[in-house]
């Protein structure tokens, strides 16, 4: 005796949403097996023909813009090079490129960049951090900017969220003359120009010294020198603050930095002093931005710039000739120019 099937459930938004989420995530073979016979699919899952047509139309429209894996049919990755694919085989050689047009390779490059960031942070971390905070005196953190410090000042976002929940931020471009009163305008412009010129001179002197040091001591350049803390410590040296520099020394700073600065300083134009008081906060921000620029240069721009440098060296030595009729080459072995 055949058991009669129950009638369709009817209009049920939650049921259609559930099936939509299921069908957009299943592999292609599973989707075809479920939806080849639309009448059978509607009957098995208690849907009306109209609901089935609406559901499958929305699913097909959504999956048209997806790159489905050619190996397993999953819509969440494009090829078996993705780690999410069950047929993924790890490559037997490391990825040397810093960018790629392939989505899976680009995702792997970004993952390697994140691992490199963690390694650089671990190498630059203080091996003997302070046990107590100088501001609140509690253990577990060393400064007031740590989230665990009760004396930590709220950020602008936290302050606005506590006072005006659900507020929206926007930017409006206004001229300086419209927001600063005339009696204070000249003093503000003079202060901005003074701070900008001082920070520019200090960071230029710092970068020139680091380049000269790395050129003469290529095997003694730890990641700490190009992080925010390392840049700020060396800025104390290049600003003439020898006492502050020696107070901040630890095993992360190579001994050759001070020795090289003493020899490097003799070739500089003798000035009475490099330092000007009242610029600590601006230098801290500048060192943080410089550390970000160093990181971006290594992870994003290094490959293209080293290629341009190699082409320049080849051109200087006359090793590059114009291609004629699709033919070209080197006059001598490229390794002889280095």
UniProtKB/TrEMBL annotation:
Origin superkingdom: Eukaryota
Name of this chain's protein: Uncharacterized protein
Q: Which UniProt keywords apply?
A: Signal
- Signal sequence span is 1-33
């Amino acid at each position: 005796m055949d058991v009669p099937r129950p009638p369709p459930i009817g209009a049920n938004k939650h049921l259609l949403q559930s099936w939509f989420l299921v069908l957009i995530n299943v592999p292609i073979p599973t989707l075809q097996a479920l939806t080849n016979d639309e009448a059978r699919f509607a009957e098995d899952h208690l849907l009306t023909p109209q609901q089935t047509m609406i559901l499958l139309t929305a699913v097909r429209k959504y999956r048209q813009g997806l790159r489905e894996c050619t190996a397993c049919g999953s819509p969440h990755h494009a090829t078996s090079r993705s780690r999410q694919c069950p047929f993924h085989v790890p490559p037997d050689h490391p990825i040397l490129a810093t960018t790629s047009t392939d989505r899976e390779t680009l995702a792997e490059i970004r993952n390697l960049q994140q691992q490199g960031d963690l390694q650089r942070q671990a190498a630059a971390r203080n091996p003997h951090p302070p046990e107590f905070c100088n501001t609140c005196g509690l253990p577990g953190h060393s400064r007031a900017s740590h989230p665990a410090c009760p004396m930590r000042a709220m950020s602008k976002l936290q302050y606005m969220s506590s006072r005006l929940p659900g507020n929206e931020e926007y930017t409006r471009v206004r001229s300086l003359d419209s927001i600063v009163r005339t009696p204070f305008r000249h003093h503000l412009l003079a202060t901005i120009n003074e701070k900008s010129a001082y920070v520019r001179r200090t960071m230029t002197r710092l970068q020139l010294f680091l380049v000269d040091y790395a050129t003469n001591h290529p095997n003694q350049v730890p990641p700490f020198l190009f992080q925010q803390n390392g840049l700020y410590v060396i800025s104390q040296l290049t600003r003439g603050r020898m006492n502050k520099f020696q107070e901040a020394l630890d095993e992360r700073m190579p001994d050759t930095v001070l020795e090289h600065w003493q020899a490097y300083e003799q070739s500089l134009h003798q000035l009475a002093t490099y330092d000007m008081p009242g610029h600590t906060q601006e230098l801290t921000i500048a060192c943080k931005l410089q550390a970000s620029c160093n990181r971006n240069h290594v992870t994003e721009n290094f490959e293209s710039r080293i290629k341009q440098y190699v082409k320049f060296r080849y051109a200087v030595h006359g090793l590059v000739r114009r291609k004629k009729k699709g033919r070209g080459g080197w006059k001598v072995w490229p390794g002889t120019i280095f």
